[in-house]
Amino acid sequence: MAPLPEEWNKLFSKAASEYEKQSAGVTRLISQQVLPLLLPITASSVIHDNACGPGIVALDILALADKAGTPPPTIYATDFNQAMITKLQSIIDEKSLKTLTAQVMDGSDLSSFADDMFTHSITNFGIFAFPDPVAGARHILRTLKPGGIAAITVWKHPGNVFFFNEVIQSVAPGTPEWFPIKEWLEESYLLNIIEKAGFEKEKFEVRELRTVWNVDDVEYTAGLFEGPFWDPAKEKLSEEQKGECKVVVRSLLEERKGKGIEMVARVLVARK
Q1: pLDDT attached to residue 11
Q2: Domain of life here (predicted)?
Q3: CA proximity to 127, closest of 196, 184, 55
Q4: Where are the alpha helices (H) located in the chain, listed in sequence order?
Q5: Counting runs of H as helices and runs of E as strands, what totals does the chain give?
Q6: Whose CB among 13, 108, 256, 270 lies 3.0–4.6 Å from 132's, allowing a Cys bridge?
Q7: Contact, 69 vs 145, CB < 8 A?
Q8: DSSP 8-class letter at 199
């Protein structure tokens, strides 16, 4: 069963200060594979980084413009979590990023934005946390300019979650599987939402993107599995079992050292 909106909010508030570290950088690694699918991005582009978290996508876009020596596009970054926006705003202020604005906004209700506003809309691993994903997808479509392009990413195989379930079963056999967004692993689930929102079948495609949750440093990676993202998975464990989890995590990571944990995403790329 998917977490309730307030549960997502609580979880992301805990993780906001170290979101990229806690996610082992995999959401950035995927978004860096997505951006080449959305070109051209120019100084005249108006981009929505939807469910932006700490601004991973927006900051990467600005970094690419800076590297190319071209003027940056205008980017609106929104997230329903205040802690994430506060984190991003601190970066905006520190780096004086004049073309990037950040504001709290629920992805299910983008009514503050006008119709046909964006040339690009990117929702990187966020739609599954929307209170109403269909409404959110409708707003993505509504706010895109005609000819604009949207990208929505979800997980197909989040190997880190499968890994942690393996840990839990080793410590407490028979414990119910912990998988908050399992329905999203099926491509049909995403497509059903996109089609209900009004996207035209002939104007979108789905691709698979792959990366790896790095396990070169076992102790470092083991520490990530002690972060707030994994607290809900351990709720039904005793304190003794939680302690055993730490031992099992390290043991299983040793087996994957140098190989990592496979992470497979889907990206839906759609035109309006």
Answers
A1: 63
A2: Eukaryota
A3: 184
A4: 5-15, 19-22, 26-34, 56-68, 82-95, 133-143, 159-171, 187-196, 218-224, 239-256
A5: 10, 7
A6: 108
A7: no
A8: -
